[in-house]
């Protein structure tokens, strides 16, 4: 405000008010400045000589990142493949079971029949396709539909009747298990027989006749039914493996529950306990055998305790390869660790008492027995899925005339895989137990507690296969 203005006031108060008044902006509005500027000038004002240049909208590094992301937005960073999200969304929609997309028909039982598509191909082409398949697969393809049967004919089914294709015939018949709940496949005959004890099949001792179906080959010793030895005088026919796994896979009408297979029995001063479990479609068996063992047994008495006089097999459960390994040597070593009672009379007894007092311990013949590094580890058969554990425990002997006393017992536990029920050859190696043993899988299914940490070693570390010709097993 100039000095001639009428509102000007002089004095100290006006001086202070003028000093605190905000200053005018240096950028004064000039006449014609807006009309003379272009649109670009409005967006980016021209920097004056007194002002620094304006900052760009994005930093150079951020602009480069946005440009790179826009250029590679359709590429997979891991595989380098171009991704079209529209195509991916459409593919997901086509995989719905109600849609008419081909791959969705694989597990859809309500899919429309494909007879028209099969009929489009000539018969010679189907025969050509069948030439690349096995006899069992061709037979399965032939009976899958009427159209395929007209194209292929019955000749591929008649091929299975030849003796050379007996294994392919059994492989084909196993696939029909779900269609015959009241029948059971007989491997010696290669046919399905009707079950005579449907739902009431039970395991019996070996000397008890227990036919599950009427078979003309039942009395033919040259073509016996497949079976597996459990212990001395106890066998498990392969038919029971079929019944358990059929009931587990298809339903209770196809066989018997696995809980009905367990048994307890005693024979030849040995007591046995069997239990079964189905894991990943395979039947696992555990057999625990034990007997009372006296301390200080000589070699002949150990053989009488371990071997049967009838067939010279162990009384406990063992696989067919037990002679080639160190199973019996480990059992004899465990028997040698049972403490022998000391003679407490005379000078020898005084000497023992003095040694025990100097050592600060007391000799107890009924104390727990500790095994050595040879007989303590678990043994795994390299030829079949079988594992063994040898232990010496204390058990109560109620049959002793002196009353209820505790004695040392030899306990041999065997875990084995009986197969998947599709072939008697399933008794051989079929599962993978490299990372987790059969014993761990079996025990984890029944108890929360696990087995104590045991080192698992080979039953036959030297790889010798002498069988009965060897003399170390006895």
Note the topology:
Layout: H1 12-20, H2 33-36, H3 39-43, H4 60-71, H5 85-94, H6 115-120, H7 123-130, H8 135-142, H9 146-152, H10 155-158, H11 166-174, E1 183-186, E2 191-194, E3 227-231, E4 234-237, H12 238-249, E5 263-267, E6 270-279, E7 282-292, H13 299-306, H14 327-335, H15 346-359, E8 378-380, E9 386-397, E10 405-417, H16 438-444, E11 456-458
Parallel strand pairs: 8-11
Antiparallel strand pairs: 1-2, 3-4, 5-6, 6-7, 7-10, 8-9, 9-10
Helix pairs in contact: 7-9, 8-11
Strand content: 15-25%
* Distance separating the two termini: 129 Å
Structural class: alpha+beta
Trace the largest sheet across and list its strands.
5-6-7-10-9-8-11
Gyration radius from CA atoms, angstroms: 43 Å
Q: SSE order in H/E notation?
A: HHHHHHHHHHHEEEEHEEEHHHEEEHE
* Low-confidence residue ranges: 1-6, 32-42, 97-101
User: Which geometry do the CA atoms define?
Assistant: flat
Summed up, the helix count is: 16
> Count of DSSP E strands?
11
Largest sheet: 7 strands, mixed
Indicate the percent of residues in helices: 25-40%
Mean pLDDT: 80
Region (Disordered): 1-59
InterPro entries: F-box-like_dom_sf
Protein name: F-box domain-containing protein
């Amino acid at each position: 405000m100039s000095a001639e203005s009428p509102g000007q006031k002089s004095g100290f108060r006006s001086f202070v008010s003028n000093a605190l008044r905000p200053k005018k902006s240096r950028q004064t509005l000039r006449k014609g400045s807006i009309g003379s500027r272009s649109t670009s000038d409005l967006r980016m004002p021209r920097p004056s000589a007194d002002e620094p240049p304006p900052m760009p909208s994005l930093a150079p590094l951020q602009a480069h990142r946005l440009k790179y992301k826009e250029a590679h937005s359709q590429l997979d960073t891991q595989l380098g493949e171009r991704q079209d999200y529209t195509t991916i969304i459409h593919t997901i929609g086509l995989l719905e079971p109600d849609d008419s997309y081909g791959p969705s028909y694989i597990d859809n039982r309500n899919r429309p029949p494909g007879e028209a598509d099969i009929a489009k191909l000539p018969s010679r082409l189907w025969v050509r396709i069948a030439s690349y398949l096995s006899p069992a697969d061709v037979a399965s393809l032939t009976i899958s539909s009427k159209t395929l049967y007209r194209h292929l004919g019955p000749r591929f089914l008649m091929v299975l009747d030849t003796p050379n294709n007996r294994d392919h015939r059994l492989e084909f018949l196993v696939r029909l298990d779900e269609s015959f709940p009241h029948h059971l496949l007989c491997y010696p005959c290669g046919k399905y027989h009707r079950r005579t004890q449907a739902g009431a099949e039970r395991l019996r001792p070996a000397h008890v006749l227990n036919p599950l179906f009427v078979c003309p080959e039942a009395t033919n010793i040259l073509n016996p039914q497949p079976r597996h030895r459990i212990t001395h005088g106890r066998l498990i026919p392969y038919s029971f493996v079929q019944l358990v796994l059929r009931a587990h896979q298809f339903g209770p009408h196809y066989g018997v529950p696995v809980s009905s297979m367990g048994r307890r029995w005693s024979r030849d001063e040995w007591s046995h306990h069997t239990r079964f479990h189905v894991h990943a479609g395979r039947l696992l068996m555990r057999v625990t055998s034990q007997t009372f063992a006296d301390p200080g047994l000589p070699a002949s008495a150990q053989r009488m305790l371990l071997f049967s006089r009838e067939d010279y097999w162990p009384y406990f459960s063992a696989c067919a390869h037990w002679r080639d390994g160190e199973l019996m040597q480990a059992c004899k070593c465990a028997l040698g660790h049972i403490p022998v009672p000391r003679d407490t009379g005379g000078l020898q007894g005084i000497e023992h008492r003095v040694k025990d007092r100097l050592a600060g311990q007391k000799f107890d013949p009924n104390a727990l027995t500790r095994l050595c590094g040879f007989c303590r580890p678990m043994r795994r058969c390299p030829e079949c899925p079988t594992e063994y554990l040898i232990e010496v425990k204390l058990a109560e002997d109620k049959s002793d005339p002196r009353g209820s006393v505790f004695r040392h017992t030899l306990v041999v536990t065997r875990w084995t895989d009986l197969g998947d029920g599709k072939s008697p050859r399933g008794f051989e190696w079929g599962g993978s137990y490299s990372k987790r043993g059969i014993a761990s899988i079996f025990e984890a299914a029944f108890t929360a507690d696990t087995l104590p940490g045991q080192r698992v070693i080979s039953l036959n570390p030297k790889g010798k296969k002498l069988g009965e010709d060897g003399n170390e097993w006895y």
